[in-house]
């Protein structure tokens, strides 16, 4: 199978989350237009994404929810559990850890790291927190492949070299500073401030357009 586009991977993850919720509610089949409506896209896009990963099904009753969950999981998940570390255990890091841990059987947060001595050496939400000075050694020890970066933006650039040296393969960056890594390390920069300002802009535009049309 050829490389799947990033946007398709994102939608497959979203589909699976919806399908898991449907399965928990006892829903056995779902049509492409229903799945599309939940995600604000077209049924054509849903069918295109599923065809791209080779999924075929008799859609007279809609997609079999359980079968589709298993098929998407076979695409998204590896055979082995992937260990994840969190760098920065402030309010955001703790919230991310609490929300995410245990939600996916193939992804597991096994360690966190912080420069604050009041956090390092303790367990936070059941996850051991270590000093950043031990980062590279503990990445190897715990076989950590991915890090979630939730440190203060002011020190984000200082973490690039330790992450590279430790052999990390993927970075989910929640700081407001976009970070670049060499080929072989996949990075997703997730800037909450920019996204919130984007939403605020479109809210402003909608309100201004509404005001002008009412004049």
From TrEMBL:
Residues 78-178 form the CoA-binding domain. Keywords: Cytoplasm, DNA-binding, NAD, Repressor, Transcription, Transcription regulation. It is found in: Cytoplasm. Residues 14-53 bind DNA. NAD(+) binds at residues 88-93. The keyword DNA-binding applies. Its main location: cytoplasm. The keyword RNA-binding does not apply. It comes from the Bacteria. Pfam families: CoA_binding (PF02629), Put_DNA-bind_N (PF06971). Belongs to the transcriptional regulatory Rex family. Modulates transcription in response to changes in cellular NADH/NAD(+) redox state. Homodimer. This is Redox-sensing transcriptional repressor Rex.
């Amino acid at each position: 199978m050829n490389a799947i586009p990033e946007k398709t991977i994102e939608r497959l993850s979203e589909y699976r989350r919806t399908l898991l919720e449907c399965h928990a509610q006892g829903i056995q089949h779902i049509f492409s237009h229903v799945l599309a409506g939940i995600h604000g896209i077209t049924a054509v896009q849903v069918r295109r994404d599923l065809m791209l990963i080779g999924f075929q099904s008799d859609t007279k009753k809609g997609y079999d929810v359980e079968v589709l969950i298993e098929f998407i999981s076979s695409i998204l998940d590896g055979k082995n559990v992937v260990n994840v570390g969190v760098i920065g255990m402030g309010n955001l890091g703790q919230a991310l850890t609490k929300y995410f841990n245990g939600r996916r059987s193939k992804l597991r947060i096994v360690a966190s790291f912080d420069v604050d001595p009041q956090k390092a050496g303790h367990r936070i939400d059941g996850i051991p927190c270590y000093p950043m000075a031990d980062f590279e050694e503990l990445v190897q020890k715990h076989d950590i492949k991915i890090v979630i970066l939730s440190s203060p933006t002011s020190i984000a650039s200082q973490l690039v070299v330790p992450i590279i040296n430790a052999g990390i393969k993927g970075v989910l960056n929640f700081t407001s500073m976009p970070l670049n890594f060499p080929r072989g390390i996949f990075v997703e920069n997730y800037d909450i401030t920019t996204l919130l300002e984007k939403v605020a802009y479109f809210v402003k535009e909608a309100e201004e357009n509404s005001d002008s049309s009412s004049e």
